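Posting for a labmate who doesn't have an account.
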Amino acid sequence: MSPPAPREALPFREFILKIHSRCNLACDYCYVYEMGDQSWRDRPVAMPAEVVDAAARRIGDHVREHALPSVEVVLHGGEPLLAAPPLIERVVRSVRAEGVSAAFFVQTNGTRLTEARLAQLDRLGVRIGVSVDGDASAQDRHRRLPDGRGSHASVAAALDALSTGPYRHLFSGILCTIDLRNDPVATYEALLRHRPPRVDFLLPHGNWSAPPPGRAEGSPATPYADWLIEIFDRWYGAAEPPADVRTFSDLLTLLLGGNVGNEGLGLAPVRYAVIETDGAIEHSDLLKPMTAASAGTGLNVLRDSLDAARALPAAVERQLGAAGLCERCRACPLVAVCGAGLQAHRYRHGTGFDNPTVYCPDMIRLIEHVRGRVAEDLAAAARPSERGPAA
């Protein structure tokens, strides 16, 4: 049964602050700079002090209005560590000055993760996620400097400093975008060398009108599921997996009847807001390559509350669960686990987001494989031992 449609959206509990709108890498799959969105060109390069202070006030007001025990604040970009150290200091201290209990994170490409930066982030209590795509070959195929040089060497050095030194406690995990040309197990092992507490494998951004590599409409092939399944079998079969893999652990939780806070899986309400460098409030910057109207709200922290954004129909729609999905997804027996994937991956010119994910065959194949492995284990655990009673 579909959950009842909320009369109003639940309050936001995560705030993504775009503190710097430019990047020092030229990743060829970047959804900000390589997929048609040009709005960043008209925004301040770095978030001005008055926007920082206004955003902090709006977050504080929102937390107090809804008696939220805690929230998360993610420093994002562009590349957030292009921001000057005093700006990062101001963001963190301004939010905390509102009396907010907030966990701070920064999502970085790692190239600016120097000893001085690590020391500052440690002092401020900001945890660190790093985007890296595997070994040198995988990383440098996509994640290059503007002059074409690869970024792997500098990122690997930064990860070594983060994962093995006194800042280990700040390491929140690795984001890795899937490239079907890379061997999946070799990619997984390359990431494990950095000792991440968590790995999150990301499907490349694409949709029905601009399909991702390897996906063709109507094809029964499941290249992304097949890629992930090789890693899952290695991860699931380990006596003690060396790192949490978010996609897999979330799938296990959902299959066993739990809930997860993963926008790309399950039916939990989406409860984050994005604040751009000019103070604009957005639903999700992932939607801008399709249509800026889908992401934008027309609101700004310099003049508007976060509750004004929460009251918009688009915010409510992101919290409807199965009731907000297309008819085909609502009828699917796997909808509570799949959740139709990321909203951005459902887009088709002419029908908007009223479609399954472009990765639908892959999602079905992956979920059924994971469910089959779990079912085998549960059946084995339920069988009486073939050994007789102890003498």
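Reply:
Got it, the structure tokens are right above this. The first helix runs from residue 49 to 65.
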